[in-house]
Specification:
Layout: H1 6-22, H2 25-31, H3 40-49, H4 69-83, H5 89-102, H6 105-116, E1 121-125, E2 138-143, E3 146-157, E4 163-170, E5 193-198, E6 204-209, E7 218-229, E8 233-234, H7 240-276, E9 278-279, E10 282-283, H8 288-317, H9 322-347, H10 359-371, H11 376-398
Parallel strand pairs: 1-4, 2-4
Antiparallel strand pairs: 2-3, 3-7, 4-5, 5-8, 6-7, 9-10
Length: about 400
Amino acid sequence: MFTQTADQDLLGNTTAQYLEATYPPARVRELARQDETFDGTLWKQGAEFGWTTPLVPEHAGGGSVSGNGLADLLAVAFQFGRHAAPGPLIGTNVVAAALGRWGSAQLHGGPLAELLDGGATAAWGHSPRTGRRAGAQVRAERSGDRFILDGTVPCVERGGPNGYLLVAAGPDDTTTTTGGGSDGDGDGDGARSHFLVPLGAPGVETAPLDGVDLTRRYQTVTLRAVTVPASARVGEPGTADEHDAALLDLSAVLQAGEIVGATHRAFELTLRWAEDRYSFGRPLGSYQEIKHRVADLRTQLEASAAVTERAARLVGTGRADARTWATTAKAYVGRVGPEAIQDCIQLHGGIGVTYEHDLHLYLRRALVDAQLFGTPAYFTERLVRLVEAAVDDDGGRAS
């Protein structure tokens, strides 16, 4: 699923075989009992397969096997969902995309090169400035040729020991700056800029969070007077909110891809159960009610895959309506995917709701993906705003 070219098939199949051998359900259950699930050696092997390069331009060290890096990476995300595999796939690639597009040559030669070869991982500390999802804001104060960052990022995925955090930060209205610069990031209007912060820097404090996903770990990151050089700023001053919108499109498509992968695996298990399980001397799948429910599940799965694939194709090629499709994918798949897996659990009867059955592994992955960086309801609201803006633009041209 999600492969259109021979090279994409190779990337998807190689990833599938690797994850099947490395993270079978028994291994996933073992990881559930461990504080740390990240394996640097295995992640570096994945980087050699091409997990970290698709969203990065060739001039920055990346590359796509098909000409559409997001479509390439979608095939990998699908397999991560199918296997409930650990590893900061989305965060690392989103940050790599930001560095590749807007980072300086210094960032390309240092942190980005580490991300691409698998020597480091990254997390995106997305925190909307306004709206229902507005969170605690990180403040940036300029001091000479450095920036001092203070604030909290409520939830980011943990990765390897050599990690980076991409965070948007801007000046506090009540803060005066020292040593040069009229405001926190030098743009004069209070707009936020992106900064790349090493998670091992002095002043960075982390606190683990509980979560339902068995193989991915999350944490709160607090920055207490963390000092970074001016070269740590990613992109032009004051562009973080605009760039965050583009990064949100990427993450929405990749999360939808993981959810489709988890739903696909749950559907396969359910279909096999309906074929193998007998009730009153007949296969469970021979009953009309079961047939109808399985047909509904298949329809939901195919619709989810279709909208996600189209979103990846349009976002990956920079189409004008790409944001609308990325938003639609997360809004639809984020709602339908977990519901479909819940239905798969119900079709299994009592065994489906036990911890011993594997279905909950994929439900957990789908639920977290559906909530992280914005719920389906949030993306539905985003879609409404995009449609309203498009209608207003059409009306303006018509008048």
